[in-house]
Amino acid sequence: MLGTFRQSRIVRPRGTGEWGKRFALLLLVAVAVATVWVTNTWLTERFTENTRNRAQVRLALYSGSVVSELQRASVVPLLLSRDPLLIQALDSGDFSQSSQRLISYVDEIGAASLMLLDNSGRVVAATDRAQIGTNLRSAPFFVEAQRSNETVFITSRTEPGGFAFTYSRAITADRRRAGVIVVGVDLAKFEKSWAGIADAIIVTDSEGQIILSTEPRWRGRTVDEALAVRSPPSAIRRALQATADWGALPPDAYLMGEAVMRNEARIPFRGWRILSFTTYVSVRERVNAVLALEIMGFAILLAGTFYLLSRRAQSRSRVFQRETAELRALNARLQREIAERERAEKNLEVVEQTLAQSSKLAALGEMSASVSHELNQPLAAMKTYLAGARLLLQRKRPEEALSSFQRIDDLIDRMGAITRQLKSYARKGGDAFEPLDVRSCVSGALSMMEPQLKRRKVTITRTMPRQPVTVMADRVRLEQVIINLLRNALDATRETAEPQIDVILSAGETAMLTVRDNGHGIEDPDRLFEPFYTTKQPGDGVGLGLAISSGIVNDLGGRLTARNGHEGGAVFEVQLPILSQDMEAAE
To answer: Rounded CA gap, 482 and 558, in Å?
Structure first.
């Protein structure tokens, strides 16, 4: 465009007035060039910094995702090494059900694979049945697990050129090594998700070796070796020539002949680091768009100046036509750049919607186990009511049978409310809470547990205050906590000659709900609220009830505690913030 401006100055000076006009024209051109140059320099620095900040934010998110995946998988070997069924299989040598048990675990914990090895290094159970019978005595994860009493993490190369990440831990039985449990960590899924963006992402270990990369051929190399691939001096010179007309900042590196900026962050795990290489394409497009607008503005100003300075109609017409053609070209170029930018924004919106949907599906997947556990109780109660209604109809007592059917209808409504909790879990908001009287929630829970209580002939002692005890909560979730505590009390008093359960509600600074039984008490209070921890026989429970109840009480702003009573039995206490009259009026 600057060359066009110089060609457009066709008016020759005639006399002292013409020299003044010519000087004004040259001053205008100089101002335009200086403005474009300053704008180019300032916008390049600003947009480059913005792009670098966004890249650093992405690196922080990616680093957090990798650490979260590693931390989640690190506790799995410890849990599985204490699985009594796996220990029994290693002792007896009967592994007919072991692989199926590992397969049932893999979907719950989100691991890539699970393997069970005996002391000789032979794979006796695995989620990939093709691995069963393979001898991995010399595998690093087996050797290191046998040497250590803790969980060990191993990174090993695979035949296709990638890396496998595993946690392993020795299984001990009667103070002797019985085998090794191996948990594979699926970090390759991050490579697939990172490949959908424009940045090149690299994860290196403490030795600088690339273990994860969006470019498969970089794995196993160092960062310098990866950058040297297909980057000869001629490519660098071409990149310098391509960016010399717009860029004022020196590039951080050259990736396959293209100038890129390099960002690096630390992953808080074994000295790992994550790097990204971002091209300057977005910066170049945004700067050029602004420059095009400035050039177009100066072009319009110059066109008007040329029109006023032209004394001859023919010369004025030629200048006008030339400037009009230039403006049309600039306008078309600007429209193309705007269209490209709109397409890029639409693609970014699609990617963001896809990520948001994946996050929601992951959250719903985590809640599926919880909801299935919660539905078992209404289903058991419905089965009991149906059996009672059938017996009442056979004895010609239809009025009493109708009350059983009404209770079944209430249970169906409750199951619908439980399934609707999935939406509240997706919102993670407080709009599902309402002022509730804890006394009514206790009555509702006892009503649902009525068939089990009658069948067991348990003495229920209920102590309630006369005044309402109001809290902010979700009725279905609060009742579910009470039902879980009552079910645990029933199970604890199964072997007691005269079972008794006390339900005590008191109100002070907080609302305190106490459920006390005269059963066998709590064996391991420290592990009581851990997921999948249970003292029941296989098939009677999966150990999720108390973990779910603790999470619900925490969401309500309270605390669930457990201890053994002075006279035997277990005591569970639920503390919830009480809702005062002022707070209720504000709500």
So the answer is: 14
